Amino acid sequence: MNSSKGNMVNAGAIMSLQQDLRAEAARLGFVAVGFAPATDDPEVVRRLHEWLAAGYHGTMGWMADRADVRQGPQSMWPAADSVIALGMSYCPDVDPLALEGDAEKARISVYAQGRDYHDVLKKAAKALARWLTAEGEKRGIPVELKLFVDTAPVMEKPLAQAAGLGWQGKHTCLVSRTHGSWLFLGAIYTTVPFAPDRPHQDRCGSCNACQVACPTNAFPAPYQIDARRCISYLNIEHKGPVAEEFRAALGNRIYGCDDCLAVCPWNKFADAGARNLAFVAREDLIEPKLDELLVLDDAAFRAKFSGSPIKRIGRNRFVRNCLYAAGNSGNAALRPLVAALLDDPDEVVADAARWALNRLP
Ligand code: B12
Ligand code: SF4
Ligand code: SF4
After folding, report:
1. Residue 20 catalytic?
2. Residue 122: beta bridge partners?
3. Does residue 310 line the site of ligand 1, with CB under 6 A?
């Protein structure tokens, strides 16, 4: 009998449910699934608060707003007994760094070249949750649960490490021995006392490839990121003009950044065949041409990026990013398109156009 949190249910029934749940998760497209106790790890709690106190979250006020809940499963939901950590692969089949320095083309990070992962993971996690509830009922196991993908106040990476999916590498993302740096994460908190998997050991060793690769020195120390310096923050989360000190380092990256992930030696074990088909890159986003992106108005932007995670930053921030890339391109042919944006009604776009025009030959 298992008596965790007063749940007097048959341990054998839970074990068999757990085994079937692994199979169901795999059927739904999760290439990694693991279980952890729904406890708050004091070390993780401490590090979150230190990170926030250092101001590393920048303008992501939502990271601080619910920090007391974000810090761990117990803080959010004391009735939770275990965590189901989920991973879906988006392993690319081409080198994400191949377009570095290209004068005509921009770089969209791998994670945003296919369908929006929030939609894809949420749909699969909801299907898994429905399955678990129905199976629990059939087998006489009471199931309550809450599911999360990315946007909830949950620290998905330490939970995934605790559940054995991989470890938080020095670039701070979860690295998997089988899927490299290319896993999207999600989590389900549940009242079912599943048996925990073993937490994953750190396998970074003496490697520091990601630390060296970062174009903006966003790592104050290994395993710590100052988001305010991270290109992914600057070109996705940050709303106003990007500080001049970072504009050259953005290069031709217009949405996210893959550099620290792409150099990780563990990626050599990752197989694009494990990638969920929803994340196969859209043809027009693999090597997007700056001259086609700079002319997007609001309607054209919305039409192009419907179903893509890129739609959430809106036309103005997107064109702002394309202008910084144009300014870094050295491509004189882009001058007329940049000049046409000098009078853009959005002041941030107009400012980026002035900056770019000044730099173009
Ligand atoms: C905020 C956020 C960001 C911010 C801040 C990044 C960050 N590392 O926190 C920004 C906008 C910069 C960002 C960028 C990206 N993100 Co993001 N992001 C998040 C989000 C919403 C919260 C992360 C969080 O809790 N940060 C808070 C800080 C405190 O966490 P932390 O860095 O992990 O801090 C730990 C370490 O510092 C560690 N630590 C500190 N000192 C030490 C010392 C030692 C010895 C050790 C071992 C550890 C250690 O302890 C802390 C607590 O565990 C998560 C989704 C979620 N809900 O979890 C996605 C998430 C982390 N992002 C994701 C992705 C894909 C990205 C990008 C790759 C996107 C891109 N290509 O542009 C980049 C990667 C940049 C990078 N190197 O991290 C994925 C990562 C998947 C994975 N395999 O890990 C997530 C999990 C989303 C998802 N559901 O899949 N992101
Ligand atoms: S995503 Fe890019 S900018 Fe951000 S930490 Fe990694 S290499 Fe640096
Ligand atoms: S590049 Fe090296 S140090 Fe960075 S996460 Fe991968 S193994 Fe760890």
Report:
1. no
2. none
3. no
Task: Measure the CA dihedral 344/348/351/352, to 10°.
Answer: -100
Q: Which two tokens stand for residue 330?
A: 């050295």
pLDDT in tens, 292-350: 999 999 999 999 999 999 999 999 999 999 999 999 999 999 999 999 999 999 999 99
The tokens for 358 are: 């000044």
Token output for 332? 């004189």
Nearest to 279 by CA among 124, 98, 88: 88
Ligand 1 lined by 157 (C-beta under 6 Å): yes
Cβ(121)–Cβ(86) below 8 Å: yes
Q: Which two tokens stand for residue 82?
A: 């275990």
User: CA-to-CA distance for 95 and 121, rounded, in angstroms?
Assistant: 24
Separation of CA 280 and ligand 1 centre (Å): 23
CB 71 within 8 A of CB 44: yes
- 207 C-alpha vs ligand 3 centroid, how far in Å? 6
Tokens of 116: 């929006």
